[in-house]
Amino acid sequence: MTDWIAEEHRYLFQNYGRQPVVIERGLGTRVWDVDGNEYLDFVGGIAVNVLGHSHPAVVRAVAEQAEQLIHTSNLFYTKPMIELARMLVEHSGLDRAFFCNSGTEAVEAAIKLARRWGRDTRAGAYEIITTQDGFHGRTLGALSATGTARYREPFEPLLPGFAIVPWNDLDAVRAATSERTVAVMVEPIQGEGGVNMPAPGYLAGLREWCTERGLLLIFDEVQTGIGRTGELFAFQHEGVRPDILVLAKGLAGGVPIGAILAREDLAAHFVKGDHGSTFGGNPLATAAALATLREVMAPGFLARARESSARLLARLRAIEDRHELVTSVRGRGMLLAIGLARECSAQVVDECRRRGLLVNNVRPDAIRLLPPLNVTDEEIDRACDILEAAIASLDAPPK
Ligand SMILES: Cc1ncc(COP(=O)(O)O)c(C=O)c1O
Relative to the CA of 134, which ligand 1 atom is closest? Predict the structure, then answer.
């Protein structure tokens, strides 16, 4: 029998720390490995699988689109990308869409659009203010915007033109603003940074400051978008609309895609030839995205996801009450994390996996939970039973 893990070690770049599971099949919240072991998947493709694995609507859309047309390039018009753009525009309050293939590429598009606008209207202003522990991607522009030294330092010198300030600190944003500043870019909830919530009024304060100083507000909703936090977009909780919205991950239910949405007057600064992507807006990806969005926007779907989130949060808070090891429960919707009293998240992940639950150690002292939005009550209860058993196995005596 093939040892797939040994083969991976032999043939792939060793740049990922993978969990030792070779996943072969998935359905809903469950996956099976090559040995037939079943797991509850609360990693969800890192916030991608909003509808779970192999949702019939996505499978059907991909299969039908693949039979009809997979790819043509942006030298032509295709229907799914136009329908998807219309749907995103109608639900976001922004005016135009650009499609690409990943989160980092979407961030690159946002950076370029901000710089283009700064050049055309703000005397060449180009600097973008971002936040410590913010994550925007791995390509050089997005990495330059990312506020985590260990990701950045090995690749310095990076792109100039980013001012990285502490998260949740409006005064720091104000102090970092100069005539060079063109935009502020944040995640409405920091995902990779450990599921860090915005302080009350922080996002509204950023909106106010940007409006007052003529800066663009860019929300990177690669992780928080497409229902992940219980609204289609996280900014809708706050009533704070960005000028540019960055999307990817959940948008096509698992098929690679990225997008930015922007106001009409901004979008107009990308003229023909300014930006592009061979695969961007590809019929297969945009058909998958249309199917995904139709499910997420179906009446009652997000309300049900919010109820499930409340159940999961209540269970997590009960675990926090019973175990010294758990020091916090944070997040919103189906983007949740528990903080740990010591740096043992990798062991919690291992203990969970041994018991049939996949979770992610987003920080050495935090576990992130990203179940699909349509996770069932029974799956939530089973996952929490396993999580609690894993924690108990590492915990000091119960409180
Ligand atoms: C907020 C945010 N922006 C950008 C990215 C980069 O997305 P991708 O991995 O698709 O390039 C991520 C990935 O985790 C993210 O969470």
Answer: 1
Retrieve residue 56's tokens: 């019939």
State which of 16, 101, 192, 246 you would mutate to test the pocket of ligand 1, scoring each by most atoms of that ligand within 8 A of its C-beta. 192
Q: 56-296 in CATH: which number?
A: 3.40.640.10
- Output the DSSP codes for 351-367: HHHHTTEE-EEEETTEE
Residues linked to residue 259 through DSSP beta bridges, in sequence order: 99, 247
pLDDT single digits (tens) 213-265: 999 999 999 999 999 999 999 999 999 999 999 999 999 999 999 999 999 99
Q: Please name which of 337, 88, 107, 81 lies closest in space to residue 226, comparing C-alpha atoms.
A: 88
**How many Å lie between the centroid of ligand 1 and the Cα of residue 378?**
30
| Closest among 306, 339, 311, 304 to 324, alpha carbons compared | 339
Q: Predicted confidence band at 396 (pLDDT cuts at 50, 70, 90)?
A: low
Structure tokens at 250: 């959940």
Helix axes 283-296, 79-92, angle to 10 degrees: 40
Amino acid of residue 295? E
Q: Is the CB of 191 under 6 A from ligand 1?
A: yes
Q: In what order do the strands lie in the sheet with 366-369?
A: 326-332, 335-340, 366-369, 360-363
221 CA: nearest ligand 1 atom: 1
Query: CATH 3.40.640.10: which residues of the chain?
Result: 56-296
Class of domain 302-363+379-399: alpha beta
Q: Which of 249, 277, 335 is the pocket-test mutation for ligand 1 (most atoms within 8 Å of CB)?
A: 249
- CB 136 less than 6 A from any atom of ligand 1: yes
Residue 346, token pair as written in the block: 């990798």
Distance from the CA of 207 to the center of ligand 1, in angstroms?
22
Give the whole-angstrom CA distance, residue 127 versus residue 115: 8
335 C-beta closer than 6 A to ligand 1: no
Q: Give span(s): CATH 3.90.1150.10, the chain.
A: 302-363+379-399
- Token readout for 51 is 């509808």
The residues annotated with a catalytic role in the active site are 135, 220, 249
Q: Token pair for residue 15?
A: 């740049």
Neighbouring residues of 168: CB distance < 8 A, sequence distance ≥ 6: 196, 198, 199, 202
Atom of ligand 1 nearest to the CA of 248: 10
When pLDDT is averaged across residues 63-75 and rounded to a whole number, the result is 97
